[in-house]
Design brief:
The structure holds 3 protein chains of 3 kinds. Chain A is of the alpha+beta class. Chain A has 7 helices and 4 strands. Chain A has a 4-stranded mixed β-sheet with strand order 2-1-3-4, covered by helices on one side. In chain A, a hairpin with a 2-residue loop joins strand 3 and strand 4. By secondary structure, chain B is of the alpha/beta class. Chain B contains 28 helices and 35 strands. Chain B has a 7-stranded mixed β-sheet, sandwiched between helices. Chain B has a 6-stranded mixed beta barrel with strand order 30-34-31-33-32-35. Chain B starts with 14 loop residues before the first strand and ends with a strand. In chain C, about 40% of the residues lie in helices and about 10% in strands. Chain C contains 18 helices and 8 strands. In chain C, the strands form 2 sheets. In chain C, strands 3-2-1-4 form a 4-stranded parallel β-sheet, sandwiched between helices. In chain C, strands 6-5-8-7 form a 4-stranded mixed β-sheet, with no helix packed on it. In chain C, strand 5 and strand 6 form a beta hairpin. The chains are: A alpha+beta, B alpha/beta, C alpha/beta. Chains A and C meet through helix 2 and helix 5 of A and helix 3, helix 6, strand 2, helix 7 and strand 3 of C. The site of FE2/S2 (inorganic) cluster has 12 residues of chain B, from loops.
Chain lengths: ~200, ~850, ~450
């Protein structure tokens, strides 16, 4: 939808400052845009390109490589059902079908009210809690069709607002500012091989 | 997956490698694929390109490599040769791998070869025939994309044919520095594309078409024009600008249909700019002059006539007032043409007022007398000083070479500029000076005691050690040449070993100057005075005193002191920095003869117009910025009765009762080699031998002792006085853009729309101060003229400066400039 | 059974919420490893880690100390990149360490940074793990606050910045060179090794150490207790302990820390202290011993010890420490298809054989599962597989049939191991359970069915 807000530009500059080369901030800035708008719009990519001195094409090239960056709007809640091997063995596919039927949208679709998008995803590192579901990347372990219904109801009713922020928000902890100390770790600084002796 | 890291050790001079059973010496650091090729073994490849970094991703070049630990499949485009290495390129395992890759590549390839431009010259097609499997084992439907989409005005992309070799995308980011195309998506659905609505508008986009190993990228000007097997080709040199890129000129049915870059080491590495690549379209234009024209009865305009009538009229007009004739132009000519005209002017027209430059270059004795550097020397210098126009706009492939040297080989560039250029972000230091103050900028740079900010100090530090090459040209046409000369003189005085690469733009401008199309200069880098004896013996009587340069000629013509004006492929009304003076000159001249390929603003007012042949239509040689001489070759017949300029010179001389002494190109070259000192030893035999494929540099030792020269420029450090800055005015900078209003662009249908126009670029702070909004139309007033322009904010423009591109469609900078002024100040006001 | 009772090394605090705060962590001996390190020279710390012979826990199992020793002297700055991109199917052990004991990782990072003289350390965490981000960020912030990170760490003149970075969803980014590309803000496409071994040419073309989260989480313990204590655990070639995630058809799926090398597959799958065996009346059909990329093992391999130097020659690998158990209800054709689809989906697209081959295999196999198989499809798939990973492909032995094991690793026509990994599930399933494939192929011969369903592969 939009370029980064003034406040986010501020934050973006701080993020850029963490890295020896500004381009390293590209993925964090795309997350920032997604946190702001819920998805990554073309305007946001153009703005990020300006901030990092890249072309919009370079930003798109990177953004489009990664699954998490949504270049079209998605629902407030992104429901990711894992069907990879461990979840498959314990009913992940059936769970996905159930969610699709319950929400009335095909896999990859968004409900008309804009509340839910449903995705089949690869292993989310919750194999010992299969079948696993993530909502906006918050884990829900050992989900059954029944508990899935409950989960969707709770989400729709706002009962999980504390636990599940809207799509786009990942970490709610901001990194310590400033993390940098006088730039000594910056590229180009020769640190003696073997490190610095106390 | 054992991680191990090779450690560096002292490299031997050669390493012994065995490829397919034959052992030979390879160069350390060389890639197996390249070494094999030198040894006569061609390893198939798609992604590898010798002029770009290896990515090893198509996997077509897999071979078995054994470095003592047993044979293993390795991509030969990523592996460097090592002593004792044994390579099998066609073992069962290697063949199996290559066949497998080829099958994978064809799995999603549409195989629409019969309707593909690349059909017949397609590496994928060739490999399939050479190595490939018989028929497809895939029954599933192939990947689908919308068929060709335009990714720019010049290039179309068919993503179904694309094999994702990363050549075009690598070229765009690594070589051109225009990363406007990229891989999008991931895995099997990856595609190459641009950002939505942000086209691949790179000056170098055509190269991607040439290096695409399939028919995914096609050039709009070539699409469906010809099939490869119908093409005929000759090798030639591009004369669009003076870098001297080698090209293959291809024709079908006697029409040029394509230019391809030819890879020569010292110059263009196979690259071309799009103007050089697609400019041939103008050659094919219906607007070409096909027969001579003469001014009809009053008001009737120009009417077609025969050569004999036209030549008679020309001679009649030019001799009417005997002696007051001048020739402007000649940079479009071949060396042979230029020699013929140089001789014609001196011995038949009796004038030394000849000038191939249009007040936009540097004085000929100065340029020709500078110690010259080659492009390679510039790239390999420890420090490069840049005092030149924006090279990407004017000498695009030189920009690519320098960009490569900077990004891949650590060349340190000190840029002296009046505004940001394409080099600014690449330079080690980019220093700003106010237009007109180039010499004082150089003085500050060289003066260790001068106090200045850190970037000047850094530049000074860089200059303090190692070899220095200076790329020298006119940064702005609104700044007089003298300030550049004074700056160079300072460099010459202070840095004894500095050498220069002249950044003069027009096709064969350096050849023309070297062959005497400059006042006071004779062929072979000698002055009229130094060469007088030598040439008088060969040519006969020469003009007594040096003639006028173009500014002088135009001023004289405006005052009626010059009656006869020959425009030798030149258009002063468009190209001379001071349009008002050009206008008065053409009106004031009693008689104007134009020799040209097209009618232009100036030749439309001529009394006689003679149609000339252009590149691709004539043989000869050309000289690039380095002084490198290379051959241009004819591929197609000139339109109508158009002919080479040297023939026109001979015919005019003939009618003036003078025998120029030659009737063939061979005879002209023999005379040049015999008479023009700097060409001595460059025989015609050498020029057609293999040595000449990359061009021949004149012998640096200089001509035999019996000849005059060599010319040396002796620096005379001097002050340039520039008027003080008026707080209300902005100082104008005007340079050229690649695409302009010139005929070469305007008559090439696919380039014509690319001229960007000429907004007045101003620092946002100044715009604010003037109360002008970004995008607002303003009134721009100089000492001599007033015009309307659109103001645009540009942070790359320093405060106090205004930038307006030269020769764009519509009224422009040339209206504002007075050639007599050292700088041009303008007032900018809201209307 | 020989389940040892050694105390856990890396998962000791996993159930102690107090360890999430720096005070709780310090109270349980936290940052003592770092202090022990700072009391010595970096070279001595490096020697200690070398002596511990700590094998990488990310998949390749390369000794950490030896890898650090490859950094070319003088070519500074060096960087440290922590691989927390855990996404190999079946694997969820790094997540436990990130979410439950973040300070232990931070301490490990600081020790490594000290030993190698890193100019800056980056902890790259998988994008889909916001809780891990929050916990690690908090830990890093606390460490800064207490002077244990940043400038003059713990009062010494050792300084290093630790930056927490996260990904955005791409399995391939777990591969170390792709991780570096991604950290540079690019598409996560692997670089060819050689020449791009991170230790030689890594982040920003500088020498870089990439280590897995679990690998580095071992360092505080090693520095506190010494290399000798570490090598006292495990076998001659596999020291210390290791985390294994056991999932699938077991009673108590979970992440368990076991002594390395001495424990067997049977122990971790069946012992009550671990996964507790399969469901009632169920039998083991096959298991994946080291993440989806590992060739499968079968019941007769249960007594192999969890020792890479034994499992490798036996035809598979311990990889990322993920054991996926399949009982006799498993449709192995569908299981194989799901994994083949995974590799097709996650191929970065750089190498032709991987980009085209994985998708081609997925298309054929899904056509088979949908009942459109053709008689020669299996041979075709195996042939396509050979063009991604030239034969012989590693496999477990099958004594009953006189089939000998073929040792790991696999060969490849690709840059990285993702491509050949697709072959593991495919070949494992076809070679062992061919009749099940034949049954699917027979569906297509059913005269009641018409036509071959075609999967359309559309780019956008
Ligand atoms: C396709 C592929 C995926 C990988 N994924 C991961 C991963 O998610 N986490 C990880 O630590 N290592 C992963 N690796 C291994 C890394 O390349 C690298 O070997 C490891 O991070 C080194 O750390 P270590 O020596 O501490 O194990 C992967 C390798 C490949 C080929
Ligand atoms: S093998 Fe596959 S994932 Fe690995 S680099 Fe090649 S294409 Fe990418
Ligand atoms: S040419 Fe070597 S991998 Fe493409």
């Amino acid at each position: 939808m939009a370029r980064l807000s003034a406040e986010n530009v501020e934050l973006a500059r701080e993020i850029i400052g963490r890295y020896p080369r500004s381009r390293s901030a590209l993925i964090p800035l795309l997350h920032l845009a997604q946190e702001q708008d819920g998805w990554v719009s073309e305007e946001a990519m153009v703005h990020i390109a300006e901030l990092l001195d890249l072309t919009p094409a370079e930003v798109l090239g990177t953004a489009s490589f990664y699954e998490m960056f949504k270049r079209e709007p998605v629902g407030r809640y992104l429901l990711n059902v894992c069907t990879n091997i461990s979840c498959l063995l314990l009913g992940g596919e059936e769970l996905l079908e159930h969610c699709s039927a319950r929400l009335g949208v095909p896999v990859g679709g968004t409900t008309p009210d804009g509340l839910f998008s449903l995705e089949e995803v690869e292993c989310v590192a919750a194999c010992t809690e299969a079948p696993a579901v993530q909502v906006n990347y918050r884990y829900f372990p050992e989900v059954t069709p029944e508990s899935a219904d409950q989960l969707l109801d709770d989400l729709a009713a706002g009962r999980l607002d504390e636990v599940v922020p809207p799509h786009g928000t990942l970490s709610r902890v901001r990194p310590p500012t400033p993390t940098r100390w006088a730039g000594r770790g910056r590229e180009g600084l020769a640190i003696p091989p073997g490190g610095v002796r106390p | 997956m054992a991680d191990d890291v090779t450690t560096e050790s002292a490299a031997p001079a050669t390493v012994a490698v065995t490829i397919d059973g034959t052992t030979f010496d390879a160069k350390p650091g060389e890639l197996v694929i390249a070494a094999a090729e030198r040894a006569g073994v061609y390893i198939p490849r798609f992604c590898w390109h010798p002029r770009m970094s290896s990515v090893g991703m198509c996997r077509m070049c897999l071979v078995e490599v054994d470095t003592g630990r047993g044979p293993a499949l390795q991509p030969s485009c990523m592996i460097e040769v090592a002593d004792g290495m044994v390579v099998e390129t066609a073992s069962d395992k290697a063949r199996q791998a290559q066949d497998g890759v080829l099958e994978f590549l064809l799995v999603n390839h549409p195989l629409d070869c019969p309707v593909c431009d690349k059909g017949g010259e397609c590496p994928l097609q060739d490999q399939t025939v050479a190595f490939g499997p018989g028929e497809s084992r895939m029954v599933e439907e192939k990947r689908h994309f919308e068929k060709p989409i335009a990714i720019s005005e010049l290039v179309a992309l068919d993503r179904e044919r694309c094999i994702l070799c990363d050549r075009c995308t690598r070229f765009a980011s690594e070589v051109a520095g225009d990363p406007l195309i990229t891989f999008i998506g991931r895995g099997n659905t990856t595609q190459v594309n641009t950002f939505p609505d942000d086209p691949f508008s790179s000056y170098f986009s055509g190269n991607t078409v040439q290096i695409c190993p399939v028919g995914a990228l096609t050039a709009t000007p070539y699409r469906f024009k010809a099939r490869p097997w119908d093409l005929e080709q000759v090798e030639s040199t591009c004369t669009t600008c003076s870098v001297g890129c080698r090209i293959a000129v291809q024709s079908s049915s006697d029409r040029v249909v394509r230019h391809l870059g030819v890879d020569v080491d010292p110059v263009n590495w196979g690259w071309l700019c799009d103007k050089g690549r697609f400019g041939f379209e103008a050659t094919n234009s219906d607007d070409r002059l096909t027969s001579p024209l003469v001014a009809g009865p009053a008001g009737a305009g120009l009417v077609e006539t025969s050569w004999s009538v036209a030549l008679d009229r020309a001679v009649e007009g030019l001799t009417a007032e005997g002696g007051s004739v001048a020739v402007i132009g000649g940079a479009r000519l071949t060396n042979e043409d230029a020699y013929a005209w140089s001789k014609l002017a001196r011995v038949a027209l009796g004038t030394d007022s000849v000038d191939a430059q249009l007040g936009d270059g540097l004085p000929a004795p100065f340029v020709l007398g500078l110690p010259r550097a080659t492009i390679d020397e510039a790239c390999e210098a420890d420090v490069l000083v840049l005092l030149a126009p924006d090279l990407k706009e004017e000498l695009p492939v030189l920009h690519l070479r320098l960009r490569d040297a900077i990004t891949n080989h650590g060349l340190q560039v000190i840029e002296l500029a009046t505004t940001d250029t394409s080099m600014t972000s690449l330079a080690a230091v980019s220093l700003r000076y106010r237009p007109g103050d180039a010499a004082s900028a150089v003085r500050t740079l060289l003066d260790a005691s001068a106090e200045s900010d850190p970037s000047w100090a850094q530049a000074r530090q860089l200059l303090s050690g190692g070899s220095v090459v200076c790329v020298l040209g006119r940064p702005s046409l609104a700044e007089a040449a003298d300030s550049v000369v004074a700056a160079a003189d300072l460099l010459l005085t202070e840095l004894s070993a500095v050498t220069f690469l002249p950044a003069l733009r027009r096709g064969n401008v350096l050849g023309a100057l070297e062959l005497g199309l400059a006042p006071g200069m004779l062929p072979g880098r000698v002055t009229l005075d130094d060469g007088r004896d030598w040439f008088t013996r060969a040519w006969g009587e020469l003009p007594a005193v040096p003639g006028l340069d173009t500014a002088g000629i135009l001023a004289a013509a405006a005052d009626g002191r010059i009656q006869g004006l020959v425009l030798l492929g030149s258009d002063p009304l468009a190209d001379f920095p001071d349009r008002e003076l050009a206008r008065r000159a053409i009106e004031g001249a009693g008689f104007v003869v134009a020799v040209d390929c097209f009618l232009n603003d100036s030749s439309r007012q001529a009394d006689v117009v003679l149609p000339a042949a252009t590149s691709g239509e004539k043989d000869g040689t050309t000289t690039n910025i380095e002084g490198r001489i290379s051959r241009v070759q004819q591929k197609v017949t000139p339109p109508g009765t158009a002919r080479a300029d040297w023939i026109i010179a001979v015919e005019l001389a003939d009618r003036l009762g003078i025998d120029l002494g030659f009737d063939s190109l061979g005879a002209i070259w023999a005379e040049i080699e015999r008479l023009a000192p700097s060409f001595s030893g460059v025989t015609r035999a050498r020029l057609s031998g293999p040595e000449a494929l990359a061009g021949i540099l004149p012998d640096p030792i200089g001509p035999p002792a019996d000849r005059p020269g060599p010319l040396r420029h002796h620096p005379v450090p001097h002050q340039v006085s520039v008027p003080p800055v008026d707080a209300y005015a902005l100082r104008l900078v005007s340079g050229r853009r690649l695409y302009d209003a010139g005929v070469g662009v305007a008559r090439a249908p696919h380039l014509a729309g690319l001229a960007p126009g000429a907004p007045l670029l101003v620092n946002p702070y100044d715009l604010d101060r003037l109360g002008v909004a970004d995008g607002e139309t303003v009134r721009v007033t100089s000492r001599t003229a007033r015009l309307d322009a659109v103001a645009a904010a540009d942070v790359g423009v320093p405060r106090g400066v205004a930038v307006m591109a030269f020769n764009q469609p519509g009224p422009g900078a040339a209206e504002l400039i007075d050639i007599a002024d050292p700088v041009t100040d303008v007032l900018v006001e809201t209307r | 059974m020989t389940v040892s009772d050694v105390a856990p090394i890396v998962s000791a605090r996993r159930d102690d919420p107090a360890a999430l705060t720096i005070d709780g962590y310090l109270a349980s001996g936290g940052y003592e490893g770092l202090r022990a390190a700072l009391a010595r020279t970096p070279a001595e710390v490096l020697d200690e880690v070398k002596a511990a012979q700590l094998l990488g826990r990310g998949g390749a199992g390369f000794p950490a100390g030896q890898k650090w020793g490859f950094l070319p002297p003088g070519k500074t700055p060096y960087y440290l990149v922590v691989n927390g991109d855990e996404s190999e199917p079946g694997t969820c052990k790094d997540r436990v360490l990130l979410e439950r004991d973040p300070h232990q990782l931070v301490e490990g990072v600081l020790i490594c940074a000290y030993a190698i003289g890193a100019a800056q350390a980056f902890i790259y965490i998988r994008g889909e793990m916001p809780l891990a981000h929050e916990r690690v960020l908090t830990a890093v912030a606390e460490a800064y606050e207490r002077g244990l990170a940043g400038r003059n760490i713990d009062g010494t003149d050792f300084s290093v910045d630790v930056v927490v970075h996260w990904g955005a969803g791409a399995y391939i980014v777990g591969e170390e060179t792709a991780l570096i590309e991604s950290l540079e803000g690019r598409r996560g496409m692997p670089r060819l090794k050689p020449p791009y071994f991170p230790a030689a040419i890594g982040l920003y073309q500088q020498p870089t150490v990439v280590n897995n989260v679990e690998t580095l989480s071992n360092l505080p313990w090693i520095l506190r207790h010494g290399a000798a204590a570490f090598t006292a655990l495990g076998t001659e070639k596999a020291h210390g302990t290791r985390l294994f995630a056991i999932s699938g058809h077991v009673r108590r799926p979970g992440v368990y820390e076991v002594e390395y090398g001495t424990t067997t597959f049977r122990d971790v799958i069946y012992d009550e202290r671990y996964a507790g065996g399969l469901g009632d009346g169920r039998e083991l059909k096959a298991f994946i011993p080291g993440g989806a990329s590992a060739p499968w093992l079968f019941p007769e391999h249960l007594d192999l010890p969890l020792d890479p130097s034994v499992v490798g020659p036996a035809g598979s690998m311990l990889g990322s420490g993920a054991i996926v158990v399949m009982d006799d209800t498993t449709d192995v054709v569908k299981a194989a298809l799901r994994l083949v689809r995974f590799y097709a989906h996650e191929s970065c697209g750089k190498c032709t054989p991987c980009r085209e081959g994985t998708t081609w295999l997925a298309t054929i196999l899904s056509r088979i599962v949908r009942g459109g198989g053709k008689a020669d499809d299996l041979e075709l798939m195996l042939d396509v597989a050979d063009n991604i990973s030239p034969p012989p492909f590693p496999r477990a032995g099958w004594a009953d049939r006189g089939i000998e094991p073929i040792a790991f690793p696999y060969r490849r026509t690709t840059i990285c191991d993702l491509g050949p990994s697709v072959v593991s599930p495919l070949r494992s399933a076809i070679e062992r359970f061919r009749p099940e494939f034949d049954a699917y192929l027979a569906l297509a011969l059913d005269p009641a069915r018409t036509g071959v369903p075609v999967e359309v592969n559309r780019g956008r």
